[in-house]
Amino acid sequence: MRIYLIGFMGSGKSHWGRLLSASMKVPFYDLDDVITQHENKTIPEIFSEKGEEYFRMLEKELLTTLTEANGNMVISCGGGTPCFFGNIDFMKDNGKVIWLNTSTPVLLQRLMKEKNHRPLLRDIPDYEMKAFIVKKLHDRKLYYEQAHLVLPEETLSLEQIKSAIEHE
Ligand code: S3P
Question: Which residues bind ATP (predicted)?
Fold first, then answer.
């Protein structure tokens, strides 16, 4: 089975992806890390040197490659992955899609500390971060909501994720 974890930046996709894959004994991929290795550049470098459009093309290409190469895997997507080029439909057709739904205050708290690693956030002044998250989340909900499973992230346990997948 292929599991695709989606959700906003800072929603815990990589954390839960690692735990879930270890427990399911299937390979784990963090799509941002795969992109970074493929280009031998950091995500902010790719955005600034080649632009977001290039990043999104690569994101789609590597999502497809990983899917074709692995019948069983857990993949933690980037926050924008489901929102471009029909990726949400592709993921739904090829596995189970789980939205880790994390509340705005928790996202804000986490992202304030990690702004500089994220090209979409690094130039936003601290006082505008909350408004940015609220707006971006609102725009992206349209895609996130299409997931097979929506799990509130802050109170989550590994058992809950596994049981939700089993009963889906
Ligand atoms: C992005 C989220 C990032 C990364 C890139 C763009 C987004 O991934 O793919 O900076 O559009 O939300 P994380 O969600 O892992 O931070």
Answer: 10-15, 118
